[in-house]
Design brief:
The protein folds into two domains: 1-52, Homeodomain-like (Arc Repressor Mutant, subunit A, Orthogonal Bundle); 55-188, Orthogonal Bundle (Tetracycline Repressor, domain 2), CATH 1.10.357. Helix 1 (3-26) packs across helix 2 and helix 5 (82-99) runs parallel beside helix 8. By secondary structure, it is mainly alpha-helical. The chain has helices spanning 3-26, 33-40, 44-50, 54-75, 82-99, 101-113, 115-139, 145-168, 176-188. The protein is globular. It contains nine helices and no strands.
């Protein structure tokens, strides 16, 4: 990375960090773009070049965690069994989210209180699920598209449920990896009541 790119990345990160401080202190809705720009010592037009919307400021962290994990899966050894590759994907995404616990908790709490954020988060999750399904489909050439779609849906639902459970637990709580392990055990052991037949 050259000096110019490094400076841009530092500016981008500074804007994001200052925005989160303001969101936590004053609330998402009451924080203006002008306040964020002033805190980061950049002009509003510069801020908009990096982040076209306030929602983007909040959700870029989640997007980075999810898509970094997916990119690693895409670039990984195609000979690795799919189950193992998916486990590595989930582990990387959860690990990155847990590495910044205050930010992760704040994102989910803000999304609960602001419909626009919740809608943008849902769009992000759907886009990631679709891209994961496409990657799975390439590895399961002889299976129907439904298999890839369901596998991707279960994977993102697992990540979302684990993170939401972790966010909702007050005080000391199990790690994201521990909650994920418990969830996977429930799935593997058939302990979840799932619909087994759709009545006509």
């Amino acid at each position: 990375m050259g000096l110019r790119e490094l400076k841009r990345e530092r500016t981008r990160q500074l804007i994001s960090d200052k925005a989160f401080e303001l969101f936590i202190d004053h609330g998402f809705g009451r924080t203006t773009v002008e306040q964020i720009a002033a805190a980061a010592e950049v002009g509003p037009s510069t801020l908009y070049r990096y982040y076209p919307t306030k929602e983007r400021l909040v959700l870029e962290f989640v997007e980075q965690c999810l898509f970094t994990a997916l990119d690693e899966m895409r670039d990984g050894d195609p000979g690795v069994p799919l189950e193992k590759a998916l486990g590595q994907l989930v582990s990387r995404a959860l690990g990155d989210l847990e590495a910044q616990p205050a930010r992760t908790r704040a994102i989910y709490e803000l999304a609960e209180d602001h419909p626009s954020l919740s809608a943008h988060l849902a769009d992000l999750v759907w886009r990631w699920r679709d891209e994961l399904a496409a990657e799975i489909a390439k590895r399961l050439e002889n299976r129907t598209p439904l298999v890839a779609a369901l596998t991707a849906a279960v994977t993102i639902d697992l990540i979302e449920m684990v993170v939401q459970t972790w966010v909702d637990q007050p005080g000391p709580s199990p790690t994201l990896a521990e909650i994920a392990t418990e969830a996977l055990s429930l799935l593997a052991n058939g302990e979840l009541p799932l619909p087994c037949r759709i009545e006509p």
